[in-house]
Structures are given as C-alpha cells and as structure tokens.
Amino acid sequence: MNRITVSAPGKLMLLGEHAVVYGHPCLVTAVGQRMYVSISNVKSQISNVKKIRIDAPGEKIFGYEKPMEDIGKGEISKGVRFIEIAVRNFREKYPFDVGLTITTRSEFSSQFGFGSSSAAMVCTIKALAELFSIKLSKKQIFDLAYKTVLDIQGKGSGFDVAAAVYGGTLYFVTGWKKIQPLVVGHLPLVVGYSGVKADTVTLINQVAEKAKKYPDIVENIYKQIARIVDIAKIALVKKDWTMLGELMNINQGYLEALGVSTGKLSAMIYACRSEGAYGAKLSGAGGGDCIIALSPKENITKVKKAIKKVGGQVIDIEVNAEGVRME
Ligand code: PMV
To answer: 143 an active-site residue?
Structure first.
C-alpha cells in the first residue's frame, strides 16, 4: 500500500469577484491555512469490487464508500462531490484499476469560504498523479481541477483553483487567459467572518438575473470593476496601501450595486473603516462568508475589535502561501 499526502492553501479574493466570471480580471491571494488530502491505493480487497472510501471529518463525512465503477454516478454526498468527480475525471484521463482510500484534514472551517472544496480537489489530483507516477505540470493540474468545477457547478471562474495550485498572489483572468503571479510581500489584511455560509452558485445566479434585467448597467459595473482591479494591481505591487484601500472601497460600492452585500457584511466593513482601515470590502461571492480590511499596523487592534463588536469573528491569516505541494 502506498500513501501520499498533499496539501494546498485556501484563498481569499482581494478584488474583482463576480466580474471575473465574465472574463474580467481579479486579484486573489493564497492563505496560510491549508487543506491536506491523503490517498492510499488498496490493491487487495476482500471482495473483488474495487472501492473508493472517503473520510472528510471537516464535512462530518466518515466511511463514505462506493464501487470504483460507480464514481460520479447516482447519489453523491455534497461534502465529497469535488473529490469524487476529481477522481472520476482523473481516472478517465489516466485509467487505473485499484481501490482508493482518501482522507482529508483542513486547517480552516469549510464555512469560511476559503475554498476548501477547490483545495481538496487540487490536492486529490496531485496526490493521484504522485500515486500513479504521472508527471503533471501545474497547468495540467489546474486544467483538470477547473474542468471538475465546471462539471459540478456549470459556472465559476476557477480563481480559487488557481490559488490552490499556484499559491502566492495572482492576477487572474478566467478561460485559461491569464494566471500571473505578483511579487507581493506582507499584506496588512484583517479578515472578518460573518457567521453566515454563502452559496456561491446562488449568488452568481442572482447577479446573472440582475444582468438580464439591466444588461448595460451591469456590464458597465463589470468594466469599472475590471478597471479597479488593474489599478489595484499596480497599487498592490507598489505597496500603496492608501490607494489599494480606496480601490477596495470603490469595489465594495459596485458589489453593493450588484446586490451581493448584506447588512452584516456592511456593518463589519463600516466598522473597520471607522476604526482607521485604509479600506474594506466583502471577499468572494457575498451573501455571507468574509470581509477583508486593509489596515495600518497601528490600527489593526482597533479594527479587529470593531469586527467583533458588530458580531463578526476575526480570522488570522497569512497571505502569499505556497501552492499545492507534497507533504
Ligand atoms: O464564494 P467564493 O469565495 O468562492 O467566491 C466566488 C467569487 C465569484 O467571482 C462570485 C465566483 C467565481 O467563480 O469567480
């Protein structure tokens, strides 16, 4: 029996969410909290049926089992969907004939919106490649993982997959157009969790409805967000935090206009701003999950307190984490 363990980082969207789904750029950073996936091949099983077994404690899934021939078919538990479809897609491309035991361990809650499913899926593909001695480039891992996202969700830019594979801080354009690593050092970010789990696809659909009703307005918002991202990229590399903060605030205004902020997110955002953050905005699809605030060092304690005061939870993170790697 071989056992391979691989890890990949979670992610935080910095700027450009929603517009990125429609071909505009975004900025994303990989966070220090990681997802770990261990895979063993099971050669001789008692019966002749080769099975996949998944334990994902973070999703409260223990002993999920299926014959290998049935993966991707029938009932698929939500908490293991990305892993199961990733295995199916890998096996279709690189056939193998053994059973698998897969175990996940996460350093962050799947509720935060840090991209636990994407990170687990990327780890699974990398671990399978190692297990079967198949050399896959980062680009090949990204391609297979992004295909898996589209198979499951039908939509999504793949920015989270890029962060899990490449790590660091990226300027990302969907459709295999651009994954550009940026040289960024420490980022003085504070993260506040709203306590509400957001469903990305629901939010994407809500925005799509708005775009159907007001096509030119929404298209113009996307264009403005794209412009913000392009200027923010320069501010980020130059470490011009005042400008980056301002751009985050403007981006938040457009996200409000798209209707994806909530009272709780806005309360945290305004609390951070009034305690001296350079800027603050929601991060990700909206509807819940997290906000990010960029804050001068001397105000960080006040900003964190402000988040807690309005009922948010502060999550300490490191940015620019390394992409998928063998453990
Ligand atoms: O909900 P999250 O944190 O995975 O972020 C979604 C960001 C979107 O732009 C709305 C969707 C996407 O796939 O880019």
So the answer is: no
